[in-house]
Amino acid sequence: MYRNIPTVLTAEEIIDKMFRRSKKVEVPLSKNRLRFHKNLSIAKIYTARDVAVSTLKKYVDSFPYINKLHPFYRTLLDLLVDKDEYKKALASLVWAMEKISGFADKYARKIKGVGKVEEAIKFRKEFYGRTSSILKQIAPKLRYLGQVRDIIRKLPDINPELPTVVIAGYPNVGKSELVSKMSTAKPEIASYPFTTKGIVVGHMEIRGRRVQIVDTPGLLDRPLEKRNRIEKEAILALKYLADVIVFLLDPSETCGYSMDEQLKLLKEIKKDFDIPILEVENKVDLLCTDSQRIKISAKTGEGLEKLMGEVIARMEL
Ligand SMILES: Nc1nc2c(ncn2[C@@H]2O[C@H](COP(=O)(O)OP(=O)(O)O)[C@@H](O)[C@H]2O)c(=O)[nH]1
Ligand SMILES: [Mg+2]
């Protein structure tokens, strides 16, 4: 999503591009030297304007409106980008487009009225000067948008509209094993803000529906209370992605965490996430308890069919 925002040129680069293109402009020869130079200057001005305005318009059109984003992306972007600064930067591009268009019309009109070749050239240069100065004025905004582009491109590449299962649970309870067993293709890693590990995204077909399955190493694998506010918000954004959370428990405790600790994390996640949570005991091949929870072995594949059925039942598809 939004991976197609074009590279944001610097003000200098836009100015260069503008000059390069208007230099190449040609108009039909005319016996009247004055008319020829007037036509040439006007054509150059409009070419320069087109380069500047279309470049800026491309940015204005391709950067997303934060408020119109899916809540999952909106929440993450809100944490990473100052919304006001971002809006102001885009607004200044619109302002510059209008200014430059206005100058082009104004100087074209002036040139039409001149009686000397030198005056036509003088006005053309004046147009270039004023346009360059407008572009220089928005230089910091262009730089800022370049940074925002990099941030947006690092947002997780995932479809938040697809029905999604998010896996939670302490390290080594078998989350990765489960995701790779359930996925039809090899799961892919998508970057996620505030964690270097990223999230792992797999896809599966359940009764003809494409469902996403997401492993969240480093996010939903330890208590939230230990995180700072920003990290916590980034983790809570997962609630806009998940339709169901599968909380994986390892009663064999071979993961290195006691059931007490694991249940504490489960309780916390239940408190923070207002979506259906499926409690699932993994490693049933090692230890089968007499609890009422769904029991699986991610390793042997036991119970996975049943788990899929339970997942789908809670998805309100
Ligand atoms: N015996 C057994 N081992 C399992 C099962 N699921 C995962 N494991 C093992 O537990 C270890 C941790 O699994 P992993 O998927 O990496 O856990 P994660 O940290 O939660 O992603 C690995 O050595 C797995 O092979 C299971 O159902 N039975
Ligand atoms: Mg893992």
UniProtKB/TrEMBL annotation:
<dbReference type="Pfam" id="PF17835">
    <property type="entry name" value="NOG1_N"/>
</dbReference>
<dbReference type="InterPro" id="IPR005225">
    <property type="entry name" value="Small_GTP-bd"/>
</dbReference>
<dbReference type="InterPro" id="IPR031167">
    <property type="entry name" value="G_OBG"/>
</dbReference>
<dbReference type="InterPro" id="IPR041623">
    <property type="entry name" value="NOG1_N"/>
</dbReference>
<dbReference type="InterPro" id="IPR010674">
    <property type="entry name" value="NOG1_Rossman_fold_dom"/>
</dbReference>
<dbReference type="Pfam" id="PF06858">
    <property type="entry name" value="NOG1"/>
</dbReference>
<dbReference type="InterPro" id="IPR006073">
    <property type="entry name" value="GTP-bd"/>
</dbReference>
<dbReference type="GO" id="GO:0005525">
    <property type="term" value="F:GTP binding"/>
</dbReference>
<protein>
    <submittedName>
        <fullName>Small GTP-binding protein</fullName>
    </submittedName>
</protein>
<dbReference type="InterPro" id="IPR027417">
    <property type="entry name" value="P-loop_NTPase"/>
</dbReference>
